[in-house]
Design brief:
about 700 residues; alpha+beta; Maltose phosphorylase, domain 3; Glycosyltransferase; five-stranded antiparallel β-sheet; 18 helices; globular; binds 5-hydroxymethyl-3,4-dihydroxypiperidine
Length: about 700
């Protein structure tokens, strides 16, 4: 693997051991559909994937998950009945590239009898389109058979999701029509231009038999589209025309948020790659949110977690506020699901799903984790006890409104979300004899310690929810009964977590647990896929935590803490944090940068920005596949640089900077949006040296 400048991620040899990982690394997406970075001849085994956002299905009793669609880009070449492919032979040379400035995937493989090259785009201009241009060059004279079409033998984790499927052909077109188990209709249609292949009903593919001479080249253009409910038109335009439109549209997206780092080429490159993986997930047109593994597959059921509100939303507030707004509207639309969840558990108000899908009902199940050896269920309580999710949603509304000044989200239903969440926290709390509100039996961001009492992060966020309620919701707009609830909410006094020498206990009794550092605890691991938390996990009875918890709280709400407190807590939790979640590093970067811990913060920034390039994250958690891209960490790297080292702050629609750049960085040029305007600011070691408005 090599890093190329400017902004091309390239691989110069075939790495058979990392096919699944490379599918993530070379991913193309446009917020609506994603296509994994796999070569044309690959299939189900190699996890080829065309993923659509926001459509879910449940097969029998298995996990309800997002949909993977049939692959319109299957292409295989044969000579004398033998496949000529990287599947069947060692290529003489093999190169794959992702140009992430332009959103273009290319591959070139020199095989024994053929060279196969291709270029592929998931359109940023028309988000239902994806297209490719495949070229073959013969090395030997003779008859070649080229087979291409829509591959319906797809990889699904909890499928099959298409109860009924039909492939139809007309001249050089194919159309897949599928009806999911839940009754949704999806289409994948494609036009194949280049070879006059004959459609064979038995296998559903076009077959072209061609006499080729050495060096003779042939090309095939495939223009495909994905539709829900009704079939759309495939454009007549050629690949080059569609490619140009997509590249221009993608350039406009980049034009609003580009970051150029001088003096640190590696960080400049990694951050651009990270931002690419966040930028390809936003949908400007639809009210949808972003799944924890984006459009890279079906991991985590394609569900939306707090990752969106806490990590991706602040990124989009600056990169494209319209998308940030859509993320909030999604939570408004899914409020009924949150109300239903609270009710089903015996609470009032809105308890958002820990894993949220289209309706907002809880998709997280108690059998979320399995023992890697026995395959037995390790029961977790994420779905019923990780209540901070509701507060995270409210925190995001506040953050968006502070940054953009756009109060209209409140009228659209944001005020109701805030009120219902506040009501939920009130009903979840227990009031002691002194009238203090305690929040018991919860899980904080550190998921290893389940069902704990007075968890610091949750308490502080609950307190903040009540403040936000007082800030935005006019009690006069409420009914008499709700006004009483409102008053109890804004007056509620929440417990303060225990402290020791200025260190905040993550939860009640935390300091009584075995005090051991992460490296020593690691020695107790029996199986690398073991789950460290839950009832029998190795971290459960220790102070080792999965990810930033108190540190996240301080990174997200710095105005609530003094510097000394932040320093003590940062130092204490550092050696006790496993960073078992990809979300952990950026929170440490944010707080570390604020505290002037330049070296550590920089390293955390690199841990976050390099996450998908390195591909070293866990692929399994307690026996469950959790691979894919890491959008929250990708956005988190941006947050680390922009909110951490550049000290960006948003107050009432105004942006200020307090720059403290690591010495190795000479300057940072940053584009960001404030409403419809786009600004470009240049910062160096002295601070902000230039600011101008730009046209995109
Ligand atoms: O939301 C996270 C959680 O904090 C840790 N486990 C994975 C989830 C999805 O990224």
């Amino acid at each position: 693997m090599s890093l190329r400048y400017p902004h091309i991620f390239a691989q110069d040899r075939l790495d058979r051991g990392n096919v699944i990982l490379d599918g993530n690394r070379f991913l193309l997406a446009n917020g609506h559909i994603g296509y994994r970075g796999t070569v044309e001849e690959y299939g189900r085994e190699e996890m080829v994937g065309l993923i659509i956002a926001g459509v879910y299905d449940q097969y029998q009793d298995s996990w309800r998950e997002n949909l993977a669609l049939p692959n319109p880009f299957l292409f295989r070449a044969y000579k004398e009945g033998k496949e000529i492919s990287i599947r069947t032979e060692e290529p003489l040379s093999h190169q794959v590239k992702l140009d992430f400035d332009r959103g273009v995937y290319t591959r070139r493989s020199s095989l024994s009898k053929l060279i196969i090259s291709s270029s592929r785009i998931v359109s940023h201009d028309d988000d239902s389109l994806l297209f490719t241009r495949i070229e073959v060059e013969a090395k030997e004279e003779g008859e070649y058979e080229l087979v291409y079409g829509i591959d319906t033998d797809i990889n699904e984790i909890h499928g099959p999701h298409f109860a009924k499927q039909i492939i139809e052909n007309a001249a050089n077109r194919l159309c897949f029509k599928g009806k999911t188990n839940e009754g949704k209709i999806l289409f994948v249609s494609a036009e194949y231009r280049g070879f006059a292949g004959i459609y064979q009903k038995e296998d559903g593919f076009f077959h072209a038999k061609l006499e080729l001479k050495p060096h003779q080249k042939l090309s095939l253009e495939i223009i495909a589209r994905v539709d829900e409910d009704a079939l759309g038109e495939i454009p007549n335009d050629r690949y080059s025309v569609l490619a140009k439109a997509s590249i221009q549209a993608f350039a406009r997206k980049w034009g609003r948020c580009k970051v150029i780092i001088e003096g640190d080429a590696e960080l400049d490159y990694e951050l651009a790659y990270s931002m690419y993986h966040a930028l390809i997930l936003g949908d400007e047109k639809r009210i949808r949110s972003i799944a924890a593994r984006g459009l890279s597959g079906q991991t985590y059921k394609g569900a939306i977690f707090w990752d969106t509100e806490i990590f991706l939303l602040p990124f989009y507030v600056l990169a494209n506020p319209k998308i940030a707004r859509n993320l909030l509207l999604y939570r408004i639309n899914t409020l009924p699901g949150a109300l239903a969840k609270a009710k089903s558990l015996g609470y009032e108000g809105a308890y958002y799903a820990w894993e949220s899908q289209d309706s907002g009902l809880e998709a997280c199940r108690a059998d979320n984790v399995t023992d890697p050896v026995t395959g037995e269920t390790v029961v977790t309580y994420f779905g019923t006890k990780q209540i901070h999710i509701s507060a995270d949603v409210v925190y995001a509304f506040d953050r968006y409104i502070e940054a953009t000044g756009d109060m209209s989200v409140l009228k659209e239903g944001g005020d109701k979300v805030i009120f219902e969440v506040a009501k939920f926290f009130l009903s979840y709390s227990t009031v002691d004899d002194q009238g203090i509100y305690h929040i018991n039996d919860v899980i904080g961001p550190d998921e290893y310690h389940e069902r704990v009492n007075d968890e610091a992060f949750t308490l502080a966020l609950a307190r903040r929810v009540m403040r936000i309620l007082g800030k935005y919701v006019d009690p006069k707009s409420l009914s008499q009964e709700d006004q009483e609830i409102y008053n109890r909410c804004v007056e509620a006094e929440f417990a303060s977590p225990q402290t020791r020498n200025g260190v905040i206990a993550e939860f009640d009794g935390y300091f009584d647990l075995e005090d051991i550092d992460v490296a020593s605890l690691k020695k107790r691991v029996k199986n690398p896929q073991d789950y460290w938390g839950g009832k029998h996990g190795i971290a459960t009875h220790t102070q080792v935590i999965k990810q930033a918890d108190v540190v996240s709280l301080m990174a997200l709400c710095p105005e609530d803490f003094d510097r000394e407190s932040m320093e003590r807590n940062y130092d204490y939790y550092l050696s006790r944090t496993e960073h078992g979640s990809s979300l952990s590093a950026s929170m440490h970067c944010l707080l570390g940068a604020k505290l002037g811990k330049e070296k550590e913060a920089y390293q955390f920034l690199r841990n976050s920005s390099g996450i998908d390039i390195r591909g070293a994250e866990k692929l399994y958690a307690g026996g469950v596949y959790i691979g894919g891209t890491h959008p929250a960490a990708n956005a988190g790297a941006y947050l680390g640089l922009v909110y951490g080292f550049l000290g960006l702050k948003e107050i009432e629609g105004r942006v200020t900077f307090d720059v403290h750049l690591p010495r190795r960085i000479h300057s940072v040029k940053l584009r960001y949006c404030v409403g419809k305007e786009v600004y470009e600011v240049t910062c160096d070691q002295r601070g902000v040296v230039k600011k101008k408005e730009v046209r995109v």
